[in-house]
Write a structure and sequence with these properties.
single chain; 744 residues; alpha+beta; eight-stranded mixed sheet; five-stranded mixed β-barrel; elongated
Length: 744
């Protein structure tokens, strides 16, 4: 079998393995030997350069001779030694083994850096670099499994690492081969069994100290961050004079053992703290299973030896004791009681590199959270979402709004123009859709007398997936009686600014009213852009924005019966923007429905992506706004409606609500007709975009009927919560801010 070794070697030393064993038997010539040259002992060596590096083949199954200088030189790279007829050959080394060997080399550098850091801190290099060594051994085990390395020495290191080393190692459960995750899992299951046996003799399931290895509860007195703040004034090497006993719990992220003393770092939801465990402080168990003399606090606790051999990184533990600050200035809980609350059966993710596989990050969010830690995007986004939800609710409650809930299952999709998800109700034998908006039911509540209502909830649209779109997303819709879209602009701006203020305060760990938060609000960084959320948002009409960019107003150039020709001619004549073949197809489809649709199309193609700073785009075409009131000054063209754009993305949409039931029915009928005409135009062009419109639009008769009872003048607004959070935490994709986004 072939053996490969990697990394630098000190002179005249070689790794214990096939090559080292071979070297010990080499004798004879010490002079240089050319490739393929026979030595005096008739040993035949062949030196070859494979993709994985130089290799050395011994063509005799018996002991053979080779020059030590040659072997020493070759040992500095990857070596493979094989006898004639061996199943593994250097020439057949795969790309996978090469890449894995590179990872081993890189991780070796990480281990080296960690050990150098330990020396600077005056700590044990092997103990300090424990996590890094574990990762290196795991990679080497994978390399060994591919037949590329001799792992006996690495296996011994892995066993020592899992067992805790020192005194704990000799009492550790039989571990066997730990060269794979399954083997590591088996070892940890054996440790869990050992913990259960200890608990059965020393603990009660109802004990507040926890019941190992999977406890029912734990009586925690303090969080990690709270202890750090509470004892921040403690001097180096000092103990808490009051001698207050504290109880903390969390996940083990680091473990260092120095003879009869160990330091275990745990992490909870607030931060980290160190537990100091010593052989003298923890109880000593008698052979009969009782506890020897010690504090009254030691009931159910692990002994020091048990901790050393049974504790692994990733375990969730609890400790009880007094607080002190070590000689190196690290706040620690000097434990007299230490228990394992939950035994982790698999290792933690690599804390240095996290999860490189983006899809795995989204699919296994819990692993992503463990790998990224407190400062990772996943945790920051989830906490920001909670803060935004609470801020919006508090602000709207202060303004007199009532939060309500409306159905998720609808008879027909309404409130927006989007492709719905469909389902079937078996008991009613009726086809239903998941809601694409909450709008129509909320406005029916306004008709019923609830003058200020809102809902934060999930909305579902069976459309494309991108960095800005997810089939399932969270929106907030707000409706206020006796108001118009101007009032909604102010409310929208206030909600966004206050949400940003609260999230920035969370990130900066400052008060929302602090100067630091104010400065961050004025210079919020998002994907390379600096946004100003402190100043009033810019306002511009859609027609003016298109004119400024293209020099064309579709309402001025569009001609009945000529389709897109006049609009395309005007664009080419102005020559301010390039018109691609795909652009021309989209413009042609839009012009089939009229100048309003053409204006919306030009805005999406040429203006939208340039709106970086927060901008209210107002007075959208009436044809694109079937639920909005006609504009007061130009009712034939425009609606009293706005859309808010930030960094080229729509963030909010609002309008003065249409309250005329007769006009509303006509609008719905025109919307249905426009949808049919668009589908017809795309079908004639044999466009692939036809699939996006492959759904039917129906008139919501119940909503139109409700308007006949009379709805007061009302303004409404919808805002995408996910996109807002993306902006506040600088997330490049909407999947980064959704706990468990939909994947293939």
């Amino acid at each position: 079998a072939g053996v490969r070794t990697a990394g630098r070697r000190r002179r005249n030393t070689m790794r214990e393995g096939g090559v080292a064993r071979l070297t010990r038997h080499l004798r004879g010539s010490t002079t240089g030997v050319a490739a393929g040259m026979r030595t005096p002992a008739a040993g035949h060596f062949n030196v070859a350069l494979a993709r994985s590096g130089p290799s050395l083949r011994c063509w005799t199954p018996a002991a053979c001779n080779a020059p030590a200088p040659l072997l020493t030189a070759l040992s500095r790279g990857f070596l493979r030694v094989g006898h004639r007829g061996a199943s593994t050959t250097t020439a057949s080394t795969t790309n996978d083994s090469v890449e894995l060997a590179d990872e081993v080399a890189k991780q070796g550098l990480v281990v080296k850096a960690a050990k150098e850091r330990a020396k600077e801190l005056g700590e044990s290099p092997n103990a300090y670099a424990r996590d890094e060594i574990a990762k290196l051994l795991e990679l080497k085990a994978k390399l060994e499994a591919m037949g590329c390395a001799d792992g006996k020495k690495d296996k011994k290191k892995a066993e020592s690492l899992e067992g805790g080393g020192g005194e704990g190692k000799k009492d550790a459960p039989a571990q066997g081969n730990t060269s794979s995750l399954e083997e590591l899992k088996r070892v940890r299951i054996e440790k869990a069994s050992a913990l259960r046996e200890i608990a059965e003799g020393t603990q009660s399931p109802t004990s507040t100290a926890g019941f190992m290895p999977f406890a029912y509860s734990f009586d925690r007195s303090d969080y990690c961050e709270g202890l750090q703040e509470r004892f921040s004034g403690l001097g180096t090497g000092e103990d808490d004079e009051g001698g207050d006993v504290v109880s903390v719990c969390g996940r083990v992220t680091n473990k260092r053992v120095f003879g009869k003393l160990a330091f275990v770092t745990i992490e909870d939801v607030t931060g980290t703290i160190q537990l100091q465990l010593s052989k003298g402080d923890l109880p000593k168990r008698q052979d009969a299973g009782g506890v020897e003399v010690g504090s009254e606090d030691c009931f159910g606790s692990l002994t020091f030896a048990e901790m050393k051999k049974l504790l692994d990184l990733g375990d969730i533990v609890g400790g009880r004791g007094t607080v002190r600050k070590t000689d190196k200035g690290e706040l620690s809980v000097k434990c007299t009681n230490f228990v394992v609350l939950t035994k982790a059966l698999v290792p933690l993710p690599d804390k240095y590199h996290g999860l490189k596989d983006q899809e795995l990050r989204y699919r296994r969010r819990e692993v992503d959270l463990l790998a990224s830690g407190h400062e990772g995007m996943a945790r920051r986004a989830l906490l920001a979402r909670a803060r935004v939800m609470r801020t919006m609710r508090d602000h709207l409650h202060h303004c007199g709004f009532v939060e309500v809930e409306t159905p998720v299952l609808h008879k027909q999709a309404g409130g927006a123009d989007a492709r719905p998800f469909t389902t079937h109700h078996n008991a009613l034998d009726k086809g239903l859709t998941l809601r694409i908006a909450t709008e129509l039911h909320l406005k029916r509540l306004v008709v019923g007398g609830l003058e200020r209502v809102y809902e934060i909830g999930k909305v579902f649209r069976n459309e494309g997936i991108s960095t800005r779109h997810n089939p399932e997303f969270t929106s907030i819709e707000v409706y206020q009686a006796y108001a118009d879209y101007g009032d909604m602009m102010k409310l929208t701006e206030d909600l966004i600014r206050e949400s940003a203020r609260q999230v920035l305060a969370l990130i900066l760990r400052e008060e929302p009213s602090s100067d630091g938060v104010a400065a961050a609000l004025e210079g919020l960084e998002y994907q390379g852009n600096t946004l100003n959320l402190k100043e009033p948002f810019r306002r511009i009409t859609m027609t003016q924005s298109v004119l400024d960019k293209t020099g064309v107003d579709p309402f001025q150039v569009w001609t009945e019966g000529r389709g897109a020709e006049p609009v395309l001619e005007a664009l080419r004549r102005q020559a301010r923007v390039p018109v691609s073949e795909q652009d021309a197809v989209e413009i042609q489809a839009a012009c089939a429905s009229g100048p309003g649709h053409a204006l919306g199309c030009l805005f999406e193609l040429y203006v939208e992506e340039d709106l970086i700073q927060p901008t209210f785009v107002t007075d959208l075409p009436l044809a694109l706004s079937p639920l909005a009131k006609p504009h007061r000054t130009e009712p034939e063209k425009y609606a009293e409606r706005f859309e808010l754009f930030v960094c080229g993305r729509e963030l909010a949409n609002a309008f003065s609500e249409l309250t005329d039931p007769i006009d509303q029915r006509k609008r719905f009928e025109r919307q249905v007709q426009s949808h049919v005409e668009k589908r017809k135009a795309l079908k004639e062009m044999d466009s692939s975009d036809l699939e996006d419109l492959d759904y039917e639009i129906e008139i919501d008769e119940e909503f139109v009927s409700s308007l006949e009872y009379g709805m007061p003048p009302t303004a409404g607004m919808g805002l995408g919560v996910d996109r807002l959070i993306m902006m506040l935490v600088d997330a490049p994709s909407i999947r980064d801010v959704i706990g468990f986004p939909l994947l293939k």
